[in-house]
Write a structure and sequence with these properties.
The complex is a heterodimer of chains A (693) and B (166).
Chain A lengths: L18 H5 L15 E7 L5 E7 L1 H4 L4 E6 L20 E2 L5 E7 L2 H10 L1 E6 L13 E2 L3 E2 L3 E2 L2 E3 L2 H7 L2 E9 L11 E7 L2 E6 L4 H11 L7 E4 L15 H12 L4 E5 L15 E9 L5 E13 L10 H5 L5 E11 L12 H19 L3 H7 L17 H12 L12 E2 L2 E13 L7 E8 L2 E5 L9 H13 L6 E4 L16 H20 L8 E5 L5 H4 L3 E13 L5 E11 L6 H20 L5 E2 L4 E2 L17 E6 L23 H13 L16
Helix pairs in contact in A: 8-15, 11-12, 14-15
Chain B lengths: L1 E8 L2 E8 L4 H8 L18 E4 L2 E4 L12 E3 L1 H4 L7 H8 L9 H16 L17 H7 L10 H12 L1
Parallel strand pairs in B: 1-5
Antiparallel strand pairs in B: 1-2, 3-4, 3-5
Classes of the chains: A alpha+beta (693), B alpha+beta (166).
Bound molecules: FE2/S2 (inorganic) cluster (2 copies).
GO molecular function, one term (chain A): iron ion binding
Keywords (chain A): Molybdenum, Oxidoreductase
Organism (chain A): Actinokineospora spheciospongiae
Chain lengths: 693, 166
């Protein structure tokens, strides 16, 4: 157990602290920082998929007024990294279409763009493979998968369980390539002064960005400062710097004293900053006559880049969701000549829970029981993946409570049983889950300034999650003062170290450090400190992780309408009930959960980066053709929570909420579409053609 | 080629020399340091650069600055007046109609435009018949669909706009 805070500011429905600044457009994002005479960078990107740069003719570009520098692999400084994504301009090799092969720096954006267009690059090309199955090298087993999980697991005898089962499911589920597409493009603004580098980086982790850039450029991290008070979304892609940051810092190094700015174009956001790769999951379920699971199997085949491996932990949710004595999971990669994938909101669980939760719905239909009852019947007593007890697990409560609030039991369970004005109407349910991570290596400073005010410092990031607000609420309760006595400072490596705003771990990780520092401050200085009294503290070790399985849960319900003649699909209602521990701020928490469900809706219905197999790139790389949910796509989306604190996790009793909202949404919608139409869609996105086959 | 133009930005006359290729968005952000409008796509596909030009909403990335010489441009920063933020801006904060805030300056400008359009009786694709449009959820969603929000703040955005229009 951790020593719990007494909630006072925590749990209050206070407005987002940075809201007033943001509605005025006054929050400075990376590109908005005022600078004197900055320079603008524009890259030249490979127009072939695989091969070598044979020659670069930059003479026309260099002749343009205002051009300060043209960078190519011939004049680029040497980098000290083996990371295939970050080794920018280190060789003439081309590994994917859209790779940076040159860069121009000029006094205005217009000149930079014109000059980049005037750089003539010629190539020697080689044959390429851009889709799984087209690569002669075949599939590859990664050493481990993202977040350190084992690649394969094998417990009991799945094949025997399937052979002996009364009911089985054996189906393939495919999820599309999807791009994070935060509204703020990835941006880097770099300035070298003497041997010191200062970077404004659109980042989910200023310390992570510093570590990576210091490594790539062979610098002492102390000479690198990364600043990022506001981030325009990231959803994983801003978890770590990409090639654009490297080339900008490189250019700035060659132009000491000048600030070099680079914001990626939207088109470049489809190739240089990562994405969720396309994957196929074969799911096998075996069940006794009453629906008790006897076997669970998930085999994943995922696309990844040849130059840098990324193996999403897609099957890990199936390792812990339901009890079953026989279980086998595996992850395999097709290594291709494609851009490097990375984290996108709930890597692993988002695609994994689409497949698993659709398969569970299929099993419920075959057994002939309610899908909620099927899930309740297979609730495990301990974590099937580790054998540890759960620190808390309220999935069944989420299912029951959510079903009541949604009106689940109004439905006639038979598919195609309800029609309204030419629309077939259905209800679907799916479970959600996401681990409750807390990262090591977080510290905070608490300082008494004067007049009952406290400054609280930690190098955290707020990419829209509400950290500016929630951390102040936590600090207030930890110090026993009102929230408006707290002056919070985040988003700079000059502040105490902090881990990434990722893995839904931010509030737990940073909040624990703040609580530790605040308690140490009170121990040392009592309730009547002097101005400038200050305490620095490291967050204590996460001992709960050793003895318990730590996860959040939820149940999502969807009402779906599919037009009988056209196959058009609409989602008039989404409802989520979550087991998210104690909620720090109900207003910002609701936005996080609803935002995750909205992205889940978007994943279910819209998002698909289509691979042009002839040209080897995304055929729809902009927001006109890659559709993300727009206002008119979203009808009623509501999220609630049980509000049961988990006192083992952290002093707030909170679980992360940034990612769980996207898990299970697509399955709830697919299951509702099946209930509406009798058509089972196993490939995302669920577009109208799939009902008309 | 360069051109000297004057823009009235948030109530202030600003003279600026622009490349004739410079968009209104880049003129505001890179030349005048007016960073309230954001660049999310530069292709008219996201709405984050929305400003009001002579009172009407415009995606400033699709407008050339030279073509706007003499225009009155209002950004999110200029919606506020001596009494503080515009009612739409206050309603956005109250309804938590934002998360990362990057789309927000465009959303609030667009919302002010929508309220004026509905008041003026302009129909949208979802307006039924010839009757004057009413500020329903469906009308707001339709009219605000040019402003993408990746954080998914749409329910709050709709609530905020309806609250101000009520
Ligand atoms: S930046 Fe203008 S619409 Fe996207
Ligand atoms: S608030 Fe982040 S994109 Fe709208």
């Amino acid at each position: 157990m951790t020593d719990q805070l007494t909630p006072n500011a925590i749990g209050r429905d206070v407005a987002r602290a940075d809201g007033p600044l943001k509605v005025l457009g006054a929050a400075p994002y990376a590109y908005d920082q005022p600078l004197t005479d900055p320079l603008y960078l524009c890259t030249v990107d490979a127009t072939v998929v695989r091969g070598r740069v044979a020659g670069v003719d930059a003479s026309a570009a260099l002749a343009m007024d205002g051009v300060e520098l043209v960078l190519t692999h011939e004049n680029a400084p040497e980098l000290s990294t083996e990371d295939g994504e970050l080794r920018v301009l280190q060789s003439p090799e081309v590994h994917f279409r859209g790779q940076v092969v040159a860069a121009v720096v000029a006094t205005t954006t217009e000149v930079a763009a014109a000059a980049a267009g005037a750089v003539v690059v010629t190539y020697d090309t080689e044959p390429f493979a851009v889709t799984a199955g087209s690569d002669p090298a075949g599939l590859h087993a990664p050493e481990k998968v993202n977040a350190g999980y084992p690649t394969d697991t094998d417990d009991g005898d799945l094949d025997a369980a399937v052979a002996a089962a009364a009911f089985t499911v054996d189906e393939e589920y495919t999820t599309a390539r999807t791009h994070n597409n935060p509204l703020e493009p990835h941006t880097t603004v770099a300035t070298w002064t003497g041997g010191d580098l200062h970077v404004f980086e659109a980042s989910q982790s200023v310390f992570g960005a510093r570590r990576v850039l210091a490594g790539v450029f062979g610098l002492d991290p102390e000479r690198v400062r990364v600043t990022c008070p506001y981030v325009g979304g990231g959803f994983g892609s801003k978890g770590s710097p990409h090639a654009g940051a490297v080339v900008t810092v490189m250019a700035a190094r060659m132009l000491p004293g000048r600030s070099v700015k680079f914001a990626l174009t939207r088109r470049q956001m489809f190739r240089l900053v990562g994405y969720r790769p396309r994957m196929t999951q074969r799911v096998r379920l075996a069940a006794a006559p009453d629906g008790t699971l006897t076997g669970v199997g998930v085999d994943v085949v995922q696309e990844s880049a040849r130059i840098k491996e990324y193996a999403e932990q897609t099957a890990v949710a199936a390792r812990m969701m339901y009890a079953a004595p026989n279980r086998r999971t595996s992850h395999r990669l097709a290594l291709l000549d494609i851009p490097v994938p990375t984290w996108m909101r709930a890597p692993g669980e988002a695609p994994g829970m689409f497949a698993l939760e659709t398969a569970i719905d299929e099993l419920a239909a075959r057994v002939g029981i309610d899908p909620i009852a099927l899930r309740v019947r297979n609730e495990p007593e301990r974590d099937p993946a580790t054998g540890k007890p759960f620190s808390s697990r309220h999935l069944v409560d989420c299912l029951h409570e959510g079903a009541d609030r949604f009106g689940w039991y109004d439905r006639d369970p038979r598919p195609r049983s309800r029609r309204v004005n030419g629309w077939l109407v259905g209800y679907g349910v799916a479970a959600s889950t996401y681990p409750a991570y807390r990262m090591p290596a977080n510290s905070a400073v608490v300082r008494y300034t004067a007049d009952d005010r406290y400054r609280v410092e930690i190098g955290a990031s707020d990419l829209g999650t509400g950290a500016w607000t929630a951390l102040a609420q936590i600090a207030a309760d930890a110090l026993g003062v009102p929230q408006d006595s707290i002056d919070l400072a985040i988003g700079d490596t000059r502040l105490p170290r902090a881990t990434v705003a990722g893995g839904s771990s931010g509030t737990a990780s940073w909040g624990t450090a703040i609580v530790e520092a605040a308690r140490a401050f009170r121990d040392k200085f009592g309730r009547t400190p002097e101005p400038d009294d200050e305490v620095f503290a490291d967050a204590p070790e996460n001992t709960a992780a050793k003895d318990f399985a730590l996860h959040g849960y939820g149940a999502q319900f969807a009402e779906v309408r599919v037009h009988e003649d056209t196959g058009e699909i609409r989602v008039p209602r989404l409802y989520g009930m979550f087991d998210a521990g104690r909620v720090i701020n109900p207003r910002t928490a609701r936005s996080q959960l609803v935002g995750g469900m909205t992205m889940g809706l978007s994943m279910a219905l819209h998002e698909d980066s289509v691979m042009d197999t002839a040209l080897g790139h995304t055929a729809n790389p902009d927001l006109g053709e890659y559709h993300i949910a727009a206002n008119a796509d979203v009808h009623e989306i509501r999220a609630d929570w049980l509000g049961i604190p988990d006192e083992r996790l952290n002093p707030m009793g909170s679980k992360g909420i940034g990612e769980i909202g996207i898990t299970g949404t697509a399955a709830a919608i697919a299951n509702a579409a099946h209930h509406a139409t009798g058509v089972r869609v196993r490939e995302l996105p669920i577009t109208l053609d799939k009902f008309l086959r | 080629m360069e051109a000297d133009i004057t823009l009235r930005v948030d109530g202030e006359d600003r003279k600026v020399t622009v490349d004739t290729r410079t968009t209104l968005l880049d003129a505001l952000r890179d030349r005048l340091g007016v960073t309230a409008p954001k660049k999310g796509c530069d292709h008219g596909q996201c709405g984050s650069c929305t400003v009001l030009v002579d009172g009407r909403r415009v995606v400033s990335c699709l407008s050339l600055a030279v073509a706007r010489d003499g225009a009155e441009v209002t950004t999110a920063a200029g919606l506020a007046d001596a009494d503080g933020p515009h009612p739409v801006q206050r309603a956005f904060v109250a309804n938590d109609a934002l998360q990362c805030g990057f789309c927000t300056p465009g959303q609030v400008c667009s919302a002010v435009g929508v309220l004026a359009e509905v008041k003026a009786g302009w129909p949208s694709a979802v307006t039924e018949g010839d009757a004057a449009p009413e500020l329903t959820d469906a009308e707001v969603r339709e009219r605000m669909s040019g402003n993408l929000c990746r954080c998914g703040a749409y329910p709050g955005i709709v609530a905020a706009i309806r609250e101000v229009g009520a």
